[in-house]
Design goal:
Elements: H1 9-18, E1 32-34, E2 40-41, E3 57-59, H2 96-102, E4 111-115, H3 122-134, E5 144-148, H4 153-162, E6 170-173, H5 178-188, E7 192-196, H6 213-230, E8 233-238, H7 251-255, E9 258-263, E10 270-278, E11 286-292, E12 295-298, E13 317-324, E14 327-339, E15 347-350, H8 354-367, E16 375-381, H9 393-405, E17 413-415, E18 418-419, E19 425-426, H10 431-440, E20 445-448, H11 452-455, E21 463-466, H12 470-479
Parallel strand pairs: 4-8, 4-9, 5-6, 5-7, 7-8, 15-16, 17-20, 20-21
Antiparallel strand pairs: 1-2, 1-3, 9-10, 10-11, 11-12, 13-14, 14-16, 18-19
């Protein structure tokens, strides 16, 4: 019997191939799951890859809720009838227009966020508020702390001397560290703290530079805790983004008690302060201020700023009465219509909504047969005020009609009403407040929607011209006669 010979290299290869097949590594099981849609992932991600929700991905099987042992409350709950309401009484700041927006003043322990564009006057207004609040005590010694993270104390004092905001009990500090700011509060023991601005203060306990989301949240939470525990009113200055919204996390607006928006054209002296959120008062009040080189002054009667000072009637102008909150403001709208040399006529607006102006132009062209299709149209408001409410539609229509026909409105005429796409004139809210403000300023003729006459009292000496359609309003407003 022959002995088997040695295996050849090919035999070795065949043996290796004939062995058990190699196993692929097991695919790891999903360890993270989205709480919103159930999408699974191997590693944690901040945003769900399926529903695009932020912060919804959590580890599978992780403890999501922790229990905390109960402790003895330092301040036990009391019946609601025994709560001292004197701690929630607003204290005037000495600036009546600012107090109007806040609902009568600042409540001790309240946190107010004042937001606005750079250079609009936030620091000037709050420095004036701080000085007046410091002088409003019984003996003129109400302690107020002004913390500036953007300017030095010398720069703040220079502005205070320019706007006459010097006070003996007004303390200045230029700090950017949160711990140092809290130390200044402990040392001064103020009743009011102004922080300019919350985006410039940083905490060493949180990573990142001052102004990011984590830093703003930590700084705001610490200041709010101090304000609530000690009953200190806090005014925070907030920056805004290029689209006008408040910079920083959205939770900042939820944490504070009052959110105040500072508005106005940088090329105009008029400034409007309106409350977007207010836990202690209404949100439909607006404060008007005049910003000049010597400071910022409240305007109790700003209607005269929005009227041209001419005495002769000019075609293409119409006066309307708008409601800013609960305050009626008499505003003038001007229109200019010229022949266009372009294939597409030009439409330009200033202080008015361009989309709404284009709609009114289309309604005039279709419903009132106004020859506007091949003409350039320019519309503007007087004084830099911005009109957003639909009650100014009728005044815009009459201004355009006067510019097209080159015929002025009768002297002393105002108009307000909403214009619909069908050409109808709809009623607006607060008609009698608008008429009372117009009568106070000397206007004796008003083009209004139907139904105003029977809805309430009309001021003496005011002639009402009711118009149900925009065509009727043009004929009766310009020619003082009804359509045929």
């Amino acid at each position: 019997m022959a002995r088997p010979g040695p295996l050849s290299p090919a035999s070795h290869t065949v043996c290796r191939m004939a062995g058990p097949p190699s196993r692929r590594p097991a695919r790891p099981s999903a360890a993270y799951r989205c709480a919103e849609c159930g999408w699974q992932a191997v590693k944690w991600v901040g945003r769900c890859g399926e529903c695009q929700a932020w912060g919804s991905v959590a580890e599978v099987g992780a403890v999501t809720a922790r229990t905390t042992a109960a402790t003895t409350a330092q301040r036990p709950a009391v019946p609601i009838g025994e709560v001292d309401v004197r701690r929630a009484v607003a204290r005037p700041t000495g600036v009546p227009e600012f107090d109007r927006v806040l609902g009568g003043g600042i409540v001790p322990g309240a946190v107010v966020l004042v937001a606005g564009e750079p250079g609009i006057g936030k620091s000037t207004l709050l420095l004036d508020v701080a000085a007046r609040a410091a002088r409003s005590g019984e003996h003129g010694d109400r302690r107020v702390l002004y913390v500036s993270g953007e300017e030095s104390a010398a720069q703040v004092r220079t502005r205070a001397e320019r706007i006459e905001a010097m006070a003996r009990s007004l303390f200045l500090a230029s700090e950017t560290d949160l711990a140092t700011v809290l130390g200044q509060v402990d040392a001064v023991q103020p009743e009011l703290v102004v922080v300019d601005s919350v985006q410039t203060i940083g905490s060493a306990e949180v990573e990142g530079s001052a102004g990011n989301v984590s830093q703003v949240r930590e700084v705001a939470a610490s200041l709010i805790q101090v304000a609530k525990e000690r009953g200190i009113a806090v005014l925070l200055v907030g920056h805004v983004t290029k689209d006008g919204s408040i910079a920083g996390p959205r939770v900042l607006e939820h944490l504070v008690d009052v959110v105040v928006q500072f508005e106005g054209d940088r090329h105009s002296r008029l400034r409007l302060v309106r409350a977007v959120k207010n836990r202690y008062g209404p949100t439909d009040e607006v404060g008007c201020f005049d910003l000049s080189d010597v400071g910022i002054v409240g305007l109790a009667d700003p209607s005269g700023l929005f009227l041209s000072g001419r005495t002769a009637a000019v075609p293409g102008t119409c006066v309307t009465v708008t409601l800013e909150g609960r305050r009626p403001l008499v505003t003038e709208v001007q229109a200019l219509v010229t022949a266009s040399s372009l294939a597409t006529p030009r439409r330009a607006t200033s202080g008015l909504d361009p989309a709404r102006v284009n709609m009114i132009l289309a309604v005039l062209d279709k419903r009132a047969q106004a020859p506007i299709g091949s003409s350039d149209a320019y519309l503007s408001t007087v004084g830099g005020v911005r009109i957003t409410e639909p009650a100014a539609d009728l005044a815009v229509s009459l201004a355009l009609a006067g510019a097209i026909t080159d015929r002025p409105l009768p002297p002393g005429t105002v108009a307000f009403g909403e214009v619909g796409l069908a050409g109808e004139v709809r009623p607006v809210t607060g008609a009698h407040r608008r008429l009372a403000e117009a009568a106070r300023l000397g206007f004796d003729r008003a083009v209004v929607p139907p139904g105003v006459l029977g809805a309430g009292p009309v001021p003496d000496g005011v002639q009402l011209v009711e118009a149900g359609t925009v065509a009727e309003a043009v004929l009766r407003g310009l020619h003082d006669r009804a359509p045929r």
